[in-house]
Give the backbone structure.
Amino acid sequence: MIFTFLKRRRRDRLRARSFPAAWKSILNRNLPIFRRLPSSDQSELLGHVQVLLAEKHFEGCGGLELTDEIRVTIAAQACLLLLHRETDYYPELTSILVYPSAYIAHEDRYLGDNIWEQGDEGRLGHTGRRMGSLVLAWDEVKRGAADPADGRNLVLHEFAHQLDFEDSRTDGAPPLSTGAEYLAWARVMSREFEALRKADETGTPSLLDSYGATNPAEFFAVATEAFFERPRAMRAKQPALYAQLAAFYRQDPASYSAEAAR
Ligand SMILES: [Zn+2]
């Protein structure tokens, strides 16, 4: 298709642009994980950042004035999930809305039996299928980036949901190539999800945040955070989960993780 061809050519040009030095120093300052990446990954990441910043609309909300620091810090973390694969740069996503800190979301929640609850909920970030947007609290973005080994990262979490949206269902599975891959994914993920639910019910400490026990979609997002931030612990304690995520992300964060220093 001509459209695909043009899009590809435009992205090639964006990736080849030289990366502004000021942006690079933002990354070195705000994103310790960036400095630990293999240098070929660093350059691939910078290329992806150019594409993402050119294609997505960023908007400051709640009085937040957008800066390059905000845009670049968010984009670089989002692009960490795209390395080493063919990517269409989060095709379901148009806008990234950034609040200064936790914001109030007005939400109707379905409780079952035709009962809806309306409530205001304080949130740090969220996204949804067909929302076309992703919302983030800037102070939490910065906190998540600043500690690359605490297992918590808001941007990785919300963008993992976007990967999940790329195939037809929100089921905690990103798009995979073959039926066999889906089967292997489902086998490992459902076992690990059940284990986290059990740990949550019995109050047993676990590597993954218990929020991942909410449903398979949250499990994938929470597991993605831990995969990049606690890879050595995950590889040691949950090797099947680590292997599954390493195969999908085509990365081995255990090899450059900051965990050892802790
Ligand atoms: Zn989530």
